[in-house]
Design brief:
The chain is an all-beta fold and about 160 residues long. It has one helix at about 95-100; strands at about 1-5, 10-20, 20-25, 40-50, 50-55, 60-65, 80-85, 90-95, 115-120, 125-130, 130-140, 145-150, 150-155.
């Protein structure tokens, strides 16, 4: 399953297909008509990795797709981890190398089942695996954490080390 992320971030919205599928579309949404006094809203993707909820700006993601669980994704000893997206190889790195996260001492036995392809001008696509994804959802930018569906999501930004 492939979920492409296209267009201006304020023009994306989610269309439910069934309980397992979601497709991102590049069309206008009800948020385009919100009053300006509420401040600018941005779309975020909630990701669950190593026992923590993180919020990633959709501006830094080009695609999200469900993948087979990878045993190498939770290991620091992996020599090469790749996924195939839209017929192309995506080189996978640990989430902590793609996004600036605080050191985590929580080890999760839950295998990653989702792949995130990063938005970048690199010759080869680069991504990371996460245990689960939520959203996208709308929230303000500039905050250290966001609330969505009664849960807190720590905002993370692209790491300078996220290159092939």
């Amino acid at each position: 399953m492939v979920y492409p992320m296209m267009g201006d971030p304020q023009e994306r919205h989610v269309q439910s297909l069934n309980w397992r599928q979601t497709m991102f579309e590049n069309t206008a949404s009800e948020f385009d008509n919100r009053p300006l006094s509420s401040g600018p809203l941005f779309q975020w993707l909630g990701v669950h990795w190593q026992g923590t909820n993180y919020a990633v700006s959709l501006n830094s993601i080009s695609a999200v797709f469900q993948t087979s669980p990878s045993l190498t994704a939770n290991s620091d000893n992996a020599h090469l981890d790749v996924a195939v997206h839209d017929g192309a190889v995506v080189f996978m790195k640990p989430f902590s190398e793609c996004f600036a996260t605080a050191p985590s001492f929580i080890a999760s036995n839950e295998l990653p089942q989702w792949a995130i392809v990063l938005q970048a001008a690199l010759p080869a696509p680069l991504g990371c695996r996460v245990q689960s994804v939520v959203g996208p959802f709308w929230a303000k930018s500039g905050l250290a954490s966001l609330e969505h569906d009664g849960q807190n999501w720590t905002v993370v930004h692209r790491s300078g080390a996220s290159h092939a």
